[in-house]
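Q: Predict the assembly, please.
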Amino acid sequence: MTYGPSSGQLVRPPEHHHDEPYVPVFTGARRDELDTILSRYPTKMAALLPALWMVQDTYGWVSEPAVEEVASVLDLTPAYVKGVLSFYTMYHQHPVGKHFVQVCTTTPCNVCGAEDVVKAFLEHTGCGELGVTSPDNRFTVIEVECLGACGFATPVMINNEFIESVTPERVARIVAEHD
Ligand code: FES
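A: Predicted assembly structure:
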């Protein structure tokens, strides 16, 4: 899956499912890409975040076999890779919808009504619950900590697209604009 930098849309490649054999990411051109990244850093460990991003760019999420592959190519333990992977909300440890919606619900946004924005997204996307992908696979909604736009409550990220001052009333239209 590619996060298109200009559109914020996801371009979804064939997914890697749990029951399919894992196909390594770091072969051929992607291995060359990783080697170029590695040449910029003094240690292999320093390339962990971009390596994880390359996996997610390929499969849309980072599976257990992918964790092991990343650990292997960077000479790290799978536990270390998993620890970093689980720290950042930008990385997905499970398949997610085409549009990954992150709503800030930290206190400044919360007092401005962020919880109602979350509810509106859960309702209009059909997700129903946080972290659950909608039946049409279009959306996954999560709450996140401060997105750095506290003066523009409530900020929402949909893939790479940043939307400020979202109110519950705006949500239906925002959802409709994301096919
Ligand atoms: S608290 Fe929501 S953007 Fe900072």
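The beta strands are 2-3, 10-11, 99-104, 139-144, 156-158, 161-163. The first strand starts at residue 2 and ends at 3.
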